[in-house]
From TrEMBL:
It comes from Turnera subulata. It comes from the Eukaryota. Residues 23-34, 61-74 have a biased composition (Low complexity). This is RING-type domain-containing protein. Residues 23-74 are annotated as: Disordered. GO terms for molecular function: zinc ion binding.
Length: 706
């Protein structure tokens, strides 16, 4: 009896092991496929939870697997036959080159020309203006369009909070991150075009004394001179004169970004589409930890395709670790084998650093950053260099840490923009890259030297641009850095001027030179350091002043107003941080009154009009503590960043103020103070694209209704 029972048990076990052996190759294939496609698979239903899942068909790239699996069962063989018949009919998305197999959790769009694509792939393609079939190039009338992120979202719980699902993102296989970042793509050799004049020959220098004349007998301890520099326009230079850029985008993909990912992807895709073939892009993402998801890659056609695919695969989850994101971005730039002339970092976040930063440690926060973006973090006894990689920070929403992000951008000589509503993120990025993609001069330095005995340089309120006065006040240098095409910088230089004297038997001269102004720069392509032409500031020293001699120079006056407003805003912000909102509002109101009474404001100067509007806006955002915490602080810090660097930033929900630059009302209209034509053009391009997308959405809705 025991032998009989043992024989039955042996036969039963043998049968089971035989079945497992026959099915072994199929199950191994199933595991491989499920790992790659996990993010695309639909969630299991409750009914299916009690039954074992059917094995997935093998990936079509492995012919050796098909040979093994066809020896199992008839049903498995027929399933494999269907798999290969699908492959033979070229069911592959022409955009991402992935399978178009049904049942993988992705919508499939069949165009009127009968070619199929993943809906997300083709909708993103259409959003960027491509209205023809990528395969046969036929024009489409019925266009796919994705609803914006603020449309109805089934991915929300009962509390209305966004949740992240692993089944809705266009997942790519997560490859292991390289240990070293010296895998950057080689740069293109840009030919030097000698047919057009270099920037040094078209750069403009001007100077204006505070008053045209000063009594010969007067001795002034503080007499002002305005120094003005303007970069050449991009139209006057060959396209090869623009400096190629290495750009690293550091993107917040923490859980709080879940309902903003669609617009974030569109904004980053806009950057990708507008970079040139000589520019290189790397993408770093961070949540609880940072990860480089795209190596430094040339934006050729294939590079763009790869970058867009990476962006389309991003998903939100985890906490916020800004420091790790910036450290990884610096590694990308420090470890690169090749270097484009311009390197910059774009940082985007909607929250506070949950891994490192707290109110008690915020003062120590900057010490955690690499010296390449925070020049003060160098070893003791080492000379503090200029920051190497500017960080252009974008904080959006009410929860981001404006103080920290402004401090990071300020330390690195970048800019801080406040994005109040996510729908203007693309325009904000456009304004930034419009400047970065128009650098025509680098390492620009303004040099001011006394040319009259007794005339000394006392001070230069140059904002964030460092200056150095030497030789007992006879020489000064202002470090400007890079200049965008048609970008203007203006600085006030205060001098001490002695009484005009003459030797015995000689008459006093009617004209006295005060200082000479010159400029040095590095040309973007040739990398040569050249000297630009100089100007000399002169005033008359008569025995008596005429009425016109006592009229202040309007160009000088408007810049003095800008500095006064900048100081008032900074002082008001300090008072607001201490809880004295009433005192801050009184200070801003007093500065408005002082501004409107100046000569340049009375003459209708456009910059003064813009400054007065800015003061009113800040007063409104300081109406109470809640308003200041919600948007006032970020708005003010973004304004301070703009004024101290004399460079455009995005502030609040819009910055489409119209101001007039130039003398009186005779200048050219432009949007946003400090905005260059290249910035304006790029913002316009973004807005046209958004308008076209809105039109496509309306057409899509209309076709659905019909």
């Amino acid at each position: 009896m025991a032998n009989t029972t043992w024989s039955k048990l042996k036969r039963s076990l043998s049968s089971k092991f035989s079945f497992r052996s026959a099915f072994k190759s199929s199950s191994s294939t199933t595991i491989t496929s499920s790992v790659v496609q996990a993010d695309d698979a639909p969630p299991p239903s409750a009914a299916a939870a009690s039954t074992p899942p059917a094995p997935l068909p093998p990936r079509p790239f492995s012919s050796s697997i098909s040979t093994t699996t066809t020896t199992t069962t008839t049903s498995l063989s027929s399933r494999l036959s269907r798999t290969f018949s699908l492959r033979s009919s070229s069911k592959i998305c022409a955009i991402c080159l992935r399978s178009l197999r049904k049942g993988q959790g992705e919508a499939i769009f069949f165009a009127e020309c009968s070619h199929p694509f993943h809906f997300n792939c083709i909708a993103n393609n259409v959003k960027h203006g491509n209205l023809v079939c990528p395969v046969c190039r036929s024009e489409w009338k019925d266009l796919p369009f994705q609803a914006p992120a603020n449309a109805f979202d089934p991915q929300r719980n009962a509390a209305g909070r966004a949740r992240v699902s692993p089944y809705t993102n266009n997942a790519r296989p997560i490859l292991p991150e390289s240990e070293h970042f010296s895998d950057d793509e080689p740069i293109s050799v840009v030919p030097v075009d000698s047919s057009s004049p270099p920037p040094s020959q078209t750069l403009t220098l001007k100077s204006f004394p505070e008053y045209p004349a000063l009594l010969a007998s007067d001795c002034l301890p503080k007499f002002g001179v305005l120094v003005h520099i303007r970069a050449p326009p991009l139209d006057d230079i060959s396209s090869h004169r623009r400096a190629p850029i290495d750009l690293v985008t550091v993107l917040d993909v923490s859980g709080s970004m879940a309902d903003k990912m669609a617009l974030l992807k569109c904004a980053v895709s806009f950057i990708i589409q507008n970079l040139g073939p000589s520019d290189r892009l790397s993408i770093v993402t961070f949540s609880s930890r940072a990860r480089r998801v795209l190596r430094l890659t040339k934006m050729s056609d294939s590079g763009r395709t790869n970058a867009l695919s990476v962006v389309n695969s991003l998903a939100a989850d985890g906490g916020t670790n800004i420091v790790d994101g910036l450290k990884k971005a610096v590694r990308v730039l420090e470890e690169r084998r090749y270097q484009n002339p311009v390197a910059s970092i774009i940082l985007l976040s909607d929250g506070r650093d949950t891994q490192r930063c707290s109110p008690e440690t915020r003062s120590e926060y900057l010490k955690l950053l690499p010296a390449s973006i925070c020049a003060t973090n160098v070893a003791a006894g080492t000379e503090s260099p200029q920051a190497t990689f500017p960080v252009h920070a974008f904080g959006f929403g009410v929860d981001h840490d404006a103080t920290t992000m402004h401090a990071i951008s300020d330390a690195s000589r970048g800019t801080f923009s406040f994005i109040e509503t996510i729908d203007i993120l693309q325009d904000a990025f456009a304004r930034c890259i419009g400047g970065l993609l128009s650098v025509v001069a680098e390492d620009v330095q303004l040099k001011v030297g006394s040319v009259c005995p007794g005339v000394q340089i006392e001070s230069i309120p140059s904002g964030r641009h460092k200056n150095k006065i030497s030789d007992q006040g006879r020489q000064a240098v202002i470090d400007i850095g890079n200049l965008y095409a048609e970008e203007e910088k203006e600085f006030l230089v205060y001098l001490s001027i002695p009484e005009s004297s003459a030797a015995d038997g000689q008459e006093r001269s009617e004209s006295t030179p005060l200082v000479a102004v010159s400029c040095s720069l590095k040309e973007s392509v040739s990398r040569n350091i050249v000297q630009a032409g100089g100007v000399t500031v002169e005033i008359r020293r008569p025995q008596a002043l005429s009425p016109t001699d006592q009229l202040v120079c309007l160009e000088f006056d408007r810049q003095r107003n800008r500095l006064a407003v900048m100081k008032a805003i900074a002082d008001a912000q300090s008072m607001a941080e201490l809880g004295n909102l009433e005192g801050a509002k009184v200070l801003l109101a007093e500065q408005r009154s002082a501004l409107l009474s100046t000569a340049s404001a009375q003459a209708g100067d456009g910059l003064c009009i813009w400054l007065e509007a800015e003061l009113r806006e800040i007063e409104q955002r300081m109406v109470n503590r809640e308003s200041y915490e919600r948007s006032g602080r970020a708005y003010v810090l973004s304004g301070i960043s703009s004024h101290t660097s004399q460079r455009a930033t995005t502030r609040g929900h819009t910055t489409s103020f119209i101001i007039t630059r130039g003398e009186g009302n005779s200048g050219l209209d432009t949007t946003t103070s400090y905005e260059t034509p290249s910035m304006t053009s790029m913002v316009s391009r973004s807005q046209v694209l958004n308008s076209a997308s809105a039109t496509l959405l309306d057409k899509s809705k209309s076709s659905i209704i019909r």
